[in-house]
Each structure stands twice: as C-alpha cells, then as structure tokens.
Amino acid sequence: MATFPTDLRYSADHEWVDDSVPATVGITDTATEALGDIVYLELPSVGDVIEAGSVIGEVESTKSVSELFAPVSGTVVEVNRQAIDDPSVVNADPYGDGWLLKVQVSGEGELMDAEAYEVLTQEG
Amino acid sequence: MTHRTSPLHAEHVALGATLTDFAGWQMPLRYTSDIAEHTAVREAAGLFDLSHMGEIAVVGPQAARALDHALVGNLSALGVDRARYTMLCQPDGAVIDDVVVYRLAPERFVVVANASNVEVVLAELTERAAGFDARVIDMSPDTALIAVQGPRSLEIVSLVAPGQEEVLAGMRYYAGATVRVLGVDAYVSRTGYTGEDGFELYVPHSLAADLWRTLLDVGASRGLVPAGLAARDSLRLEAGMPLYGNEIDRTTTPFEAGLGRIVRLDKTDDDGAPLDFVGRAALEGRKGAQPARVLVGLQGLGRRAARSGYPVLASTQPGAVEVGAVTSGAPSPTLGYPIALAYVTPEVSAEGTELGVDVRGRAEPFRVVPYPFYRRPEQ
Question: H or E stretch including B244?
C-alpha cells in the first residue's frame, strides 16, 4: 500500500530519520494514518540529550495517543515550533513541513531502510 | 479473522474509508479527517452507516407486556411511532445493553441493540418473552441503518422523501414514522447519537446503497459528508451520551451511570399492581441509595487528554490517592480542550472539584463539570 521515501531510515516505532547533519526526525504516514488528526505534540526541548529507544514525547490525536521514541541518540538542537503550534501539518506533510526534531546524533538505534520498513508495516 | 461487512461496504471502499474492526464488523473509522467529519456534523451534516447495529422485532398481542417485563422502561406507555431509550438489565441490576425501542404499531416493537450485544439481547428477549403471547424476530440480517445528523439534516432527508417534507418537519425528537424514501417504505426517526438534530433511516439492504449515494449526492452542496465511527465517538462524548462498554456494562447499574430516571419502578400491570421486571428487586434496593461511585464530567485544564482506563486522583500532588477511573476521554474538537467521563467516589463528585488524572505517569489537572459538555444552539 504505502511506499516510503527511500532517502530516509525508519524505526520499528514509526519514526523516520534522515542523513543530514544535524539529522531531522519525524513520524511516518503509517503513524499519522493510525492516529488520525493530530491535535497536540509534546516534544523535548532544545538542549535535551535523548537516547535511542527511549520515550521523548507524545503525539496525540482526537482518537488516540502515541508515545514518541527517539530513533537516534544525541542532543536536540531544534524543535519544529510550527508543528507544535499547528500539529495538522504533521498529518498533511509528515516527511516535509511536519518534521519534529533536529538532533546532533551521537549514536543510532535500530534503523531500517524503506524496503524493510514497508515489510514491517505490512506485517503489522 | 473474518469480519462481517455492512451492505454499504463497497461504498465505503469506493470512498477510500479507513476501516476498523468494531464488534466483529469491518466499519468505516474515517473517510478523510476525524475533525472535519466531526465539524461537518456540528455545522452542516454527516452521513453515518450504522448497519452493524441490531434490530430485533417483538410482535404480538402481548408484545408490550413482554417488553415491560424484559426491560427497565415502561414500554406499554410508549405511543405508536415513538421511540424510547431504555436498558436490558440482569437480575442483579447490571446492564446487559442500552437500547432504543420503537413502537411501530400497537402490537409491533423494534428493539435496537448495540452491535456487540445483538446476540445476547436476542437471546435474553427470546427467553424473557417466552411466557407472553409475543414473538421475537431478528430483523438485523436485512436491515440497514443510515443516519443523517446535523443542523441541515431535515433539509437533506426531505430531498429523498418527496411529498413527505411535512411529516419529517413535524416529527418530534424521539418520534418516528414510516416514510416513502426513494419509492420504498422506510422507517425514519428523529433520533441520533451526536447531540445534533438528525434522522435515522431503517431500510432493507436492497435500498441501502441507492439511498446512501442519493443522500451524498443531494447533500454534498449542503455540506453533508460521510462520517466514520471516530467522529461518532467524539460527537457522542461531547453530547455526554454513554457508550456501552465504556460508561455502562455488566458491572454498572443505571443508577451509577446517572440514568436512574429510566428505571420505571412505577410501572404497573393490568390490575394496577407494581409490575415485576427483570432486575426490579435489585434496582429497587439501589434507588435513593448513594452509589459507591458516580459518573461525572471532567474538563482538562491542561492540554493532555485523559483516556479510557486512566486513574482519577484526588489531586495532582505526588502520592494523591486514586478516587476513580476515566471511562471515555478525548480532546474535544468543538470545545478545544480535553473532556472526559469518569467514575469517581461521591465525595469528589461535586461540580467544580479539582482532581488529577494520571495521564501516562504524570498527573494532569481536571475539574468536575456538568455534562453534556456541548449543547446544540437553540434553533
């Protein structure tokens, strides 16, 4: 069904990360479609040190809520204020304007390529 | 696992709906956006497929008496072409299902049950009607239920029932009538589960797809959009309406749920003696007694929403004692803040009481408020 951008890598918890420096982090459209309309984002603050696999925030929709897991370890250098102010941008453009964080990466969690992630979502 | 599908399944697929498993059925969760569908119902109209609900006819000279015995309401007193919200309770007073009962004729009733409970309601009604001259017939296999809800619903439904506009316009809340819809007899009632004006149309499967498409066709220019179960849930929560499995179930009585008024201990038999019904003795004992827990409305003072099952705390202070549990909760699309229904101990149930809710490990502030959280503006 869904195909995922091949220039990104993915966590099993439906986050994506790109290979820029600092790295951009967001959630996939598999996550946004499962959630429905996102109304509230709770994100870490700039300067926070995050650890891959740990809970670093929440994504809440009218229907449900998901925890946000760090796909990488490192230091948060920027959060998407626009998405916090209007979370609908995460539904509308999860790989673009709906990004969540920029992280100075010190280590990675278990990440997979688009093909492997697609297999995972189809198993789900 | 196989799911049952509605007679409108192909319509949902064609509209690109996201489907969800609901009580063994595959039903539309949303078509586009939960909030857009919710807002359309508040501001214009939404179209819902509710064909998963069960319709059970109770027919015969003693149909009314059978239902008086089987349900907590006084169905003998229900007028023809009127509907009533009532419950089927266990002998111990706990709720098996909440239902809407229609009286189509003096000796013909239809009980509308929740999808998850159709089989048990059918079995209970059959057993409870056994001593009466009445038959219990499951109409669900050939009944589709389509709801049009929202301020423009009268205008839209009138367009598919030419010549019946006055019948529809004159129909009171919780009334119904057999109406010619697209040339076929349908049962149409002014009922719903959204807090808005609206209609529910009971039609044979053969008419369902035609009616659905025609309503979308004529309704589109009037703001009608198809709406899924996600919007239905947020709409009913804003309207403070209980959901079976959340606010009411086999561990709750109607009194705890704040619905004691529907338990008609005053109903009488033909001789004027108190009429015995299933659950009566237990419910009599509960009436007037302070329940151990009461259902309250909560308004979130922060942004994080309480969800079903979350513990309610006496305060947001560390170590605050647990005083209840949330049954339903969401960020309200209409109001813009979190709302919830919760069972709490009576001591903390007064309006204005500030409580905490344990939202995934962090206590968030909530205040006890009256519900419905939302009331539609006067027309």
Answer: none
